[in-house]
Design goal:
Oligomer: single chain
Helix content: 55-70%
Strand content: under 5%
Low-confidence stretches: 1-5, 431-436, 438-444
Structural class: mainly alpha
Distance between the termini: 77 Å
Radius of gyration: 28 Å
Number of helices: 26
Largest sheet: 5 strands, parallel
Strand order of the largest sheet: 2-1-3-4-5
């Protein structure tokens, strides 16, 4: 028997599907909540293929050469990374130099494959919205990938010879994967940011260990299968269906995810991949379709480009034509950059030779240049230009302080903590003030609501947080809750906590939708958490994002179908005057927030006193 050695085209298609889920997780997290598990698919596939290769070498009596294999991996990964970093350096120098903050450590940790631990040491979050994100945040994965390869190769080199039977070694790898899972379970704290366990090699090693372990238990041999493919077809279909369901259902903040859900997904993925490699069925043939396998080979450059495109365009949405904010357009940009990168560096089709120089001595460089063809001179000039831009960007980064971004981040964090404390104090002091009900009987029959006497809760994202002091100045009886990056789909736990602690009033104004869309089910769940007699006000969002129109339409429909829900159409009434915005063109500044609160006050009091909302007033 001999091991299978051909290229697995069906796996290329699976890689392409995985990168699409990863991308759409960032664009529409409310629809693709488990899209972040696409990274797990990559890791499991890599573990299986690495296990096939190393077990084949051991089976054939070949020595596991750690540094040779590591060198080949790095030679494949590094050239496209350096190209992306160089090109980004040039673009940021000319257009967005604020993204160059800490550029040296971002790039250094990426190129030397410790980016995941660097981000952990900096307290960075992969999941939370931050004021000034890094364009290289997503490259933590490359560091985890290389670190996992090193660990598995060391295990094959030093531990594999201790076992006479491959099965026992496979069980050992799976046992180590369970130890990695246990580390994740112990380190994850429910309700806290999961970045530490999501980035850490110790807590994520189980994906590749599981893949390699299953290969050792049941290695892939060339085999002739019978004509009956019903059972393998059902097996593949069932496993892939479970994967898809989990990709849509699992959430990045769920305790289940980190207490076994991710490991369960990896088991299903590993079994699905192994079945696709072993059984020749209709599903395997469909996944081997040439067009999708070609796209699958673009998965690595697509992974390199998607996050810089996403962050770069969305963080400056207010300064770009609306055309660039549509998701299909951005996907086309990502695909175009990926195709270019693939053709530059692919081993067979690659236009660019790496490394470009046979030697770094001045004499050799001079000889290379004098005898080079016109095409090679263009290549060498391109390398030199990107290197120059990168070096200049490091200089700009060294001179550029991150105090502004860090200060703004700290301000938001402190304001959020102060707001929680203030709300708790207000809830505590207001409890004993419930006097006899005769006071209500002595009220005037027609109560006139004013900003000073209305008890209302303002609940939303960073705009509400920024305006918290102004809200309390205008509405002294109000409760205000704001959180940077808050989205409707993950707001429900906080809303429920506020209700249980008595911080929710019978009148609530929601400002959600600026950071991402949501499904009708999420909106219904939010509404159903509240009492039927609660007056709910939904503020439309003005941000120039692809989901804004859908968000506003859902708010409008909800207001039309519920008697206790009212629409505040800020998007249709606010002013686009530039002086109302922060430099990013998205966030409102102090004056802008004042105008925004003026609009809210007018709409709120008009509805409470007159039973209607005048959505035709100009802000």
């Amino acid at each position: 028997m001999t091991f299978m050695t051909k290229r697995y085209q069906q796996i290329d298609t699976l890689r392409f599907i995985s990168i699409l889920f990863i991308i759409m997780y960032h664009y529409q997290k409310f629809r693709y909540s488990g899209g972040f598990l696409g990274v797990n698919i990559f890791l499991v596939i890599s573990g299986i293929l690495l296990g096939i290769k190393l077990e084949k070498n051991y089976f054939n009596g070949e020595e596991v050469t750690l540094f040779y294999n590591l060198k080949r991996t790095i030679q494949k990964l590094i050239p496209p990374v350096l190209f992306v970093i160089g090109l980004l350096s040039a673009v940021l120098l000319f257009f967005r130099h604020e993204f160059l903050t800490n550029w040296f450590m971002q790039t250094f940790s990426t190129v030397f494959f410790f980016n995941n631990w660097y981000q952990i040491s900096q307290g960075a979050s992969y999941f939370a919205e931050i004021i000034q994100p890094s364009l290289l945040t997503h490259l933590w994965y490359l560091s985890l990938y290389v670190q996992s390869i090193i660990v598995i190769q060391l295990l094959f080199k030093f531990v594999r010879p201790l076992f006479s039977r491959r099965h026992y070694f496979g069980y050992t790898l799976i046992g180590l994967s369970l130890l990695s899972l246990l580390t994740m379970v112990l380190l994850f704290k429910p309700g806290s940011d999961p970045t530490r366990v999501y980035y850490g090699t110790d807590t994520r090693l189980f994906s590749m260990l599981l893949g390699a372990g299953l290969v050792c238990i049941n290695p892939l041999y060339r085999s002739t299968h019978g004509k009956d493919e019903i059972r393998p077809l059902l097996l593949q279909g069932g496993l892939l269906a479970i994967m898809v369901v989990m990709l849509f259902m699992i959430e990045d903040s769920s305790t289940f995810t980190y207490w076994g859900g991710m490991y369960l997904f990896d088991i299903v993925t590993a079994l699905a991949v192994l079945s696709l490699l072993y059984y020749d069925t209709m599903i395997q043939r469909v996944l081997s379709f040439r067009a999708t396998t070609i796209l699958g080979r673009l998965s690595y450059p697509m992974y390199l480009w998607y996050y810089p495109v996403y962050i770069g365009l969305y963080n400056h949405a207010g300064q770009l034509p609306a055309f660039f904010l549509h998701i299909p357009v951005q996907l086309a940009i990502i695909l175009g950059l990926s195709v270019g990168t693939y053709f530059l560096f692919d081993k067979k089709l690659g236009i660019v030779k790496f490394p470009p120089f046979t030697s770094l001595s001045l004499t050799t460089l001079k000889e290379d240049w004098l005898h080079a063809s016109a095409r090679r001179k263009i290549t060498l000039s391109s390398y030199a230009s990107l290197l120059l831009f990168f070096l200049i960007s490091l200089g700009v980064s060294a001179m550029q302080s991150d105090e502004v971004a860090a200060g703004l981040e700290a301000t938001y964090t402190q304001r959020h903590e102060d707001l929680l404390e203030q709300n708790q104090q207000r809830a505590t002091t207001s409890e004993p003030t419930e006097e006899p009900e005769e006071a209500e009987e002595t009220q005037e029959p027609e109560h006139i609501y004013t900003a000073e006497n209305v008890e209302v809760t303002f609940f939303g994202d960073s705009t509400v947080l920024s305006g918290s002091e102004q809200f309390y100045d205008r509405f002294p009886l109000a409760t205000v809750y704001g959180e940077v990056g808050l989205q409707l789909y993950n707001a429900m736990p906080q809303l429920n906590a506020m209700r249980q602690s008595g911080q929710l009033h019978d009148i609530i104004v929601f400002s959600l939708g600026a950071n991402g869309g949501f499904s009708n089910d999420h909106l219904e769940q939010l509404i159903n958490q509240l009492d039927d007699d609660t007056k709910i006000f939904l503020l439309t969002t003005h941000v120039s994002r692809p989901w804004a129109a859908d968000v506003n339409a859902q708010f409008r429909q909800m207001a039309e179908t519920h008697d206790n829900i009212y629409l505040m159409d800020w998007a249709n009434n606010f002013s686009y005057e530039g002086y109302l915005y922060e430099p990013d063109g998205i966030h409102l500044n102090y004056d802008g927030i004042s105008v925004w609160i003026d609009f809210i006050e007018s709409q709120l009091l008009d509805t409470l006193n007159n039973g209607r909302v005048d959505n035709n007033s100009n802000a």
